[in-house]
Specification:
Blueprint: E1 3-8, H1 14-23, E2 27-33, E3 48-49, H2 52-57, E4 62-65, H3 72-81, E5 85-89, H4 96-109, E6 113-116, H5 123-133, E7 140-148, H6 160-175, E8 180-188, E9 198-205, E10 210-216, E11 223-230, E12 233-238, E13 243-249, H7 257-260, E14 267-272, H8 280-292, H9 302-321, E15 325-326
Parallel strand pairs: 1-2, 1-4, 2-3, 4-5, 5-6, 7-10
Antiparallel strand pairs: 7-11, 8-9, 8-15, 9-10, 11-12, 12-13, 13-14
Helix pairs in contact: 3-4, 4-9, 6-9
Domain Gfo/Idh/MocA-like oxidoreductase N-terminal: 4-117
Organism: Microbacterium arborescens
InterPro entries: Gfo/Idh/MocA-like_OxRdtase_N (IPR000683), Gfo/Idh/MocA_Oxidoreductases (IPR051450), GFO_IDH_MocA-like_dom (IPR055170), NAD(P)-bd_dom_sf (IPR036291)
């Protein structure tokens, strides 16, 4: 069976969705809609339709929504009412209330609703999570992320927390196999825009793991790093390159009395793992396709996306009030 796919939005992210939808087996990119036209020329022989209603009228089985966040709810609700399985880009919506309405609509219709938290499909993080689940790090103590770089002109409707920190919050809950228990945050507005362009988040998962996220649009260098520290050492995932490195706690006996009396750790072997590195967007689309076909899959559900947005909103509320938010 070949699924007919529709794509709403062919901007910076939508153009990549168009490419991958044309490449994966079992899917035909049947229709494209974008009221702003086709700035990157990705439509090919397909006409560029005006809106989501025209996309639905083209007769599609599944859709990808890659328009600005504030338009996610309206598009998703129209697609769910038409019986179309849908993947929306992250964050799921601009408010928790809107996200909840989307979750309810797709659940009630018995449709697949997914959110494009693409970091879950990054090969370094998938390999890290597999090794964590096999107990290679022992007890996990802390998960910290750094996601920073120059300001992206394409983002205008949300701040850095919803656009970027949502990646780190979702991947941390996923890698750590636990929901968030509480968060505190501080924000900064340095670029003269309405929304924050820098945030520092600290918190704790329900499992007791300490978390920390540094995110901004104000750095001249680009960094995408996740560090998981545990009793046997630390995993460092560079999601920009897909590399995963393990720093082992040393096991060499210490003869220096004043050091050996400290019950800490010492430096040990460093290993960079070799493993297949497939394009995360392609893996994400294959998972969505499999979900629509009723196969085993590991999509990020709309319920997952809503939990992530709830943590994001809680972090922004904590920054505004100066008080930790309990989830």
């Amino acid at each position: 069976m070949t699924l007919r796919a529709g794509l709403l939005g062919v901007g910076m992210m939508g153009r990549h969705h168009a490419r991958v939808l044309r490449e994966i087996d079992g899917v035909e990119l049947a229709a494209i809609a974008d009221p702003a036209g086709d700035p990157f020329g990705v439509a090919g022989s397909l006409p560029v339709l005006d809106d989501v209603d025209a996309l639905i009228a083209a007769g599609i089985d599944m859709a990808v929504v890659a328009v600005p966040t504030r338009f996610h709810e309206d598009a998703a609700l129209r697609l769910s009412a038409a019986g179309v399985h849908t993947l929306v880009e992250k964050p799921i919506a601009d408010t928790v209330e809107a996200g909840a309405r989307m979750v309810e609509a797709f659940d009630a219709a018995g449709l697949v609703g997914a959110v494009g938290h693409i970091e879950r499909f990054n090969p370094a993080l998938q390999e890290m999570r597999r090794r964590l689940r096999e107990g290679e790090l022992g007890q996990v103590y802390q998960i910290q992320t750094r996601r920073q770089g120059p300001f992206p002109a394409r983002i205008a409707d949300v701040g850095v927390t919803k656009d970027l920190a949502s990646h780190d919050i979702d991947l941390t809950a996923w890698v750590g196999d636990s929901t968030y228990e509480r968060v505190f945050a501080q924000t900064a507005h340095r670029s003269g825009r309405e929304h924050e362009d820098m945030i520092a988040i600290t918190g704790r998962l329900a499992s007791g793991v300490i978390v920390n996220h540094l995110v901004n649009w104000l750095s001249p260098m680009k960094e995408r790093v996740t560090v998981v520290t545990g009793e046997r050492g630390a995993f460092v995932a560079d999601t920009a390159t897909g590399d995963l490195t393990f720093y082992a706690n040393g096991t060499i006996p210490l003869e220096w009395e004043s050091v050996s009396s400290f019950r800490g750790v010492s430096e040990g072997d460093v290993v960079r793992f070799a493993f297949p590195k497939r394009e995360p967007l392609r893996v994400e689309h294959e998972a969505f396709r499999d979900a629509v076909l009723g196969r085993s899959n590991d999509i990020v559900t709309m319920a997952d996306g809503l939990r992530t947005l709830s943590v994001v909103e809680s972090a922004l509320a904590a920054a505004a009030t100066g008080k930790a938010a309990v989830l």
